[in-house]
Amino acid sequence: MGYKKLIATPHINNLFPDNNPEKLLHSFYQIAQETNRSRFEVKLGIAAEYMLDSGFEKHLLARNLLTLDDRIVLIEFPTFQAPPNIEEVLFELQLAGYKPMLAHPERYSFFHSDLTKYEKLKELGCLFQLNLLSLAPNQNDHVRNSASKLLNCDWYEYVGTDIHSPDQLKYLSKIKLRHSFSNNELL
After folding, report:
1. Which of 6-20, 71-85, 88-102 has the highest mean pLDDT?
2. If 171 and its partner were Cys, which of 87, 96, 113, 136 is the partner (CB 3.0–4.6 Å)?
3. Nearest-CA neighbor of 121 among 148, 94, 97, 145?
4. Total-model pTM
């Protein structure tokens, strides 16, 4: 499909309590060894996608978050509601020298009806990452429409695939994205 670089961002949340920097680093090196035999360059940025759940505070306090370049921390919300302390969490991340980036903001149904909620996050210094699969034909209309609105507002800084299985790869080739981003890496 023409991708030149891959950045893996495994989940760190209460559902995966064993995911930690040491374990993930080992996994990244295993992936790198396999992909170095192919045409992919694997970035070993040791990044992760952090759920803002009850376990996130301990990761933040440890100050060993797995980040993308420029200390960008990929975060996500629980599916059905935004964390009640989101402003505080974003402030604490920035105070600790991190840049928060919200994964797939178009998927959060509790924001769909009010574009000003997204705008507030941008004002609080939150970057946005588009889930490319949100534009796929099999995605629900609300998610696709939200992604289009956020693209039209030029509020995405990064693009990711959020691939969790080989079956999802078939949808990537069907997506035509005519938009430029400040960073051309695929997360």
Report:
1. 88-102
2. 136
3. 94
4. 0.87
